[in-house]
Specification:
four-stranded antiparallel sheet, 11 strands, about 15% helix, 2 helices, about 35% strand, seven-stranded antiparallel sheet, single chain, alpha+beta
Length: about 190
């Protein structure tokens, strides 16, 4: 029996964007000192500019027509502090298009959950926990000075911190200001 080649096509893919060594060492250290308590709102314009500079590349990789949008805006930025014994329950980031996490320390991974109910019917074991095509969850390691940007609707969580060290990160939400939906459709809206 001969083996035939298969073509691959990802249906309903969820792309996340990951970068390591995102900031220069000095900027990284400055941000690390800034985050002191959980859910602390931050005013970090240089950090936000660095993110926004990369959003054009991310949108281009997704095939987004940026001409439809007048602005890409970070609406909130806040610090996360996960003390030993704490966790971040399953959640999404409503009313936004993209969200992200910038890791200041190592610690528990961010667990992303597949929102399709049937995806959890059988979970295969994978060599790499971040490449999980037929499963209900994928783990993104908390690597200092790395960033992950993902669709805001993607459910995620952080399990109970069983380490002795505090896990610190910065989260943010992004919206594209402009037109959503097909032009001249009854579902077009401007935000």
């Amino acid at each position: 029996m001969k083996l035939v080649p298969f073509q691959q096509m990802d249906l309903f893919p969820t792309r996340i964007h990951i970068a390591e060594d995102f900031l220069e060492k000095k900027e990284f250290q400055k941000l690390n000192l800034l985050v002191k308590k959980d859910k602390q709102k931050l005013d970090v314009p240089d950090f936000e500019v660095a993110i926004l500079r990369h959003m054009g590349i991310i949108c281009d990789s997704l095939g987004v027509n940026l001409k439809s949008y007048s602005d890409i805006e970070i609406t909130q930025t806040w610090g996360n502090v996960l003390e030993p014994g704490d966790d971040h329950l399953i959640h999404t980031h409503s009313n936004h298009i993209f969200s992200g996490v910038y890791y200041l320390t190592k610690g528990n991974p961010t667990i992303f959950l597949d929102p399709r109910p049937a995806a959890d019917s059988m979970s295969l074991n994978y060599k790499n926990p971040t490449q999980c095509f037929y499963g209900s969850r994928a783990a993104m390691p908390a690597t200092p000075n790395s960033i992950v940007i993902f669709p805001s609707w993607l459910p995620h969580l952080v399990m109970i911190n069983r380490e002795e060290e505090t896990r610190k990160s910065i989260s943010f939400n992004i919206i594209l200001r402009g037109k959503y939906g097909q032009e001249n459709s009854l579902q077009e809206v401007a935000i």
